[in-house]
Amino acid sequence: MTTVLDRLHELQVQVPDMRFLTGPDIPERNRTDWSFLPPSSPVAVARPTSTDEVSKLLAACHADGVPVTPQGGLTGLCGGSRPIDGGVALSLERMSGVERIDPDGMTMTVLAGTPLETVQKAADEAGLFFSLDLGARGSCAIGGNLSTNAGGNRVIRYGMARDLVLGVEVVLADGTVLPMLNTMLKNNAGYDLKQLFLGSEGTLGVITRAVLRLHPRPGCVSAALCVVDGYDKVLDLLRTARRRLGPMLSAFEVMWDDYWYQATQRVSGVRAPVEIGGGSHVVLVEMQGLGAEVDTPRFEAWLEEVFASATVTDGAVAQSLGDIAAFWATRDAAAEFANPAVIGPHISFDVGLPVKRMDDFARESKAALERELGCQSVHYGHVGDGNLHIVAWVPGAAPQPLPEVSRIVYDIVRAYEGTVSAEHGIGTLKKPYLGHTRGPDEMALMRRIKNCLDPENNLNPGKVFD
Ligand SMILES: Cc1cc2nc3c(=O)[nH]c(=O)nc-3n(C[C@H](O)[C@H](O)[C@H](O)COP(=O)(O)OP(=O)(O)OC[C@H]3O[C@@H](n4cnc5c(N)ncnc54)[C@H](O)[C@@H]3O)c2cc1C
């Protein structure tokens, strides 16, 4: 009987540049992602160097019914890139590099395995700006960002990953290559097929290349940390920032007092530029302007106004790029929470809620978690985007009670008419709760689309839905 490994050996002869890692050579990191799910047992990790190799691999796996899980930087938080036991992990890591920057069209063509930070730097060196930014920027890859429709820090101004893509090259489950590398901002010729692959978590096709949308490099950046007493004042601040800074408002990140304590008292190397009392929120406001002469005074005038009106009770204004980095360090500190010296194993959420009700939700879910499970929680989020992050943990519990904690949080999300995922995706962790946010007809249509593109259910099966 021909085994999967026999087939991969045969394939290796056709595609000598593709590397297959098997048995003890399979790296630990390719067995799971940042979801805290235990490592799985793929039969091999395939490391292609070209779209043609990806196509041949997928065609062979399609013919033999072998499940394939695409992998980018493996920083996903919900199990999407964790391979299927007995399947093949398809790592895009060797397909990395910026192929072309078009300063007139404001586009960049990249291979899918390119780390996000490399994309950001390449844009900057060309005098341009790629706006997608998140804490995992050094490790995540652009293909993973697009497959999860990543959000991050500057959605309020530039939109999510979906808004930053003009074209993609995709390989379907049967090996068909779709070279949809559109470079034009406007293209209404029929259905916009690329959207199917953005945010579908590797279940409909493998992205191998992308044409990204660039923006002008900001002429100046201003930032402040504002201490605000009460969520009503947070909303006042957001309203005035939108009105006075207009489209230059590039981040509005809110940290609740419980989060602020963990980030600034427990994470090594992060200092607290402002002191707060219980019940306060700290808001990181960033403005990307055209030029310091005109726009920095505009930012300062707005700050004076919000201090004078007592919307803000205390604050710190960045005087240098170092200060801006220190402010962002308080927000990026969440990446260190998994460290046992800080919080250790925990369950993280990226729920979406009506902006007005985010604080009510935070209070209600915090109280319910504490009351029912003795579960601690901290809150922070991209409030301008209606996206709240919760980090929840039951002290000393191993493993953490994922189903019980999830049920409490997602039942309240449903009651608030929110979404179980604002930006991280569904993967396997949130599969049981997709129906909290999507209706039966929507889910049936999703299944029909999956069935149409991947009738044998080989591409990342068991992710998003069964
Ligand atoms: C510290 C930290 C901070 C984070 N902050 C944010 C944040 O602010 N906003 C946010 O949205 N996310 C955030 N994340 C989550 C994560 O970084 C993003 O989801 C990221 O977009 C995943 O990219 P990746 O390359 O690591 O993808 P992976 O984890 O490798 O894969 C994610 C999913 O995409 C699929 N996939 C990967 N590559 C491809 C491809 N080429 N073609 C088809 N499918 C593919 C996988 O099968 C999987 O389903 C954070 C994670 C960490 C660890």
Automatic annotation (TrEMBL):
<protein>
    <submittedName>
        <fullName>FAD-binding oxidoreductase</fullName>
    </submittedName>
</protein>
<dbReference type="InterPro" id="IPR006094">
    <property type="entry name" value="Oxid_FAD_bind_N"/>
</dbReference>
<dbReference type="InterPro" id="IPR016166">
    <property type="entry name" value="FAD-bd_PCMH"/>
</dbReference>
<keyword id="KW-0285">Flavoprotein</keyword>
<comment type="similarity">
    <text>Belongs to the FAD-binding oxidoreductase/transferase type 4 family.</text>
</comment>
<dbReference type="Pfam" id="PF02913">
    <property type="entry name" value="FAD-oxidase_C"/>
</dbReference>
<dbReference type="InterPro" id="IPR016167">
    <property type="entry name" value="FAD-bd_PCMH_sub1"/>
</dbReference>
<dbReference type="InterPro" id="IPR016169">
    <property type="entry name" value="FAD-bd_PCMH_sub2"/>
</dbReference>
<dbReference type="InterPro" id="IPR036318">
    <property type="entry name" value="FAD-bd_PCMH-like_sf"/>
</dbReference>
<dbReference type="InterPro" id="IPR004113">
    <property type="entry name" value="FAD-bd_oxidored_4_C"/>
</dbReference>
<dbReference type="InterPro" id="IPR016171">
    <property type="entry name" value="Vanillyl_alc_oxidase_C-sub2"/>
</dbReference>
<dbReference type="GO" id="GO:0071949">
    <property type="term" value="F:FAD binding"/>
</dbReference>
<dbReference type="GO" id="GO:0016491">
    <property type="term" value="F:oxidoreductase activity"/>
</dbReference>
<dbReference type="Pfam" id="PF01565">
    <property type="entry name" value="FAD_binding_4"/>
</dbReference>
<feature type="domain" description="FAD-binding PCMH-type">
    <location>
        <begin position="38"/>
        <end position="217"/>
    </location>
</feature>
<dbReference type="InterPro" id="IPR051264">
    <property type="entry name" value="FAD-oxidored/transferase_4"/>
</dbReference>
<keyword id="KW-0274">FAD</keyword>
<keyword id="KW-0560">Oxidoreductase</keyword>
<dbReference type="GO" id="GO:0022904">
    <property type="term" value="P:respiratory electron transport chain"/>
</dbReference>
<dbReference type="InterPro" id="IPR016164">
    <property type="entry name" value="FAD-linked_Oxase-like_C"/>
</dbReference>
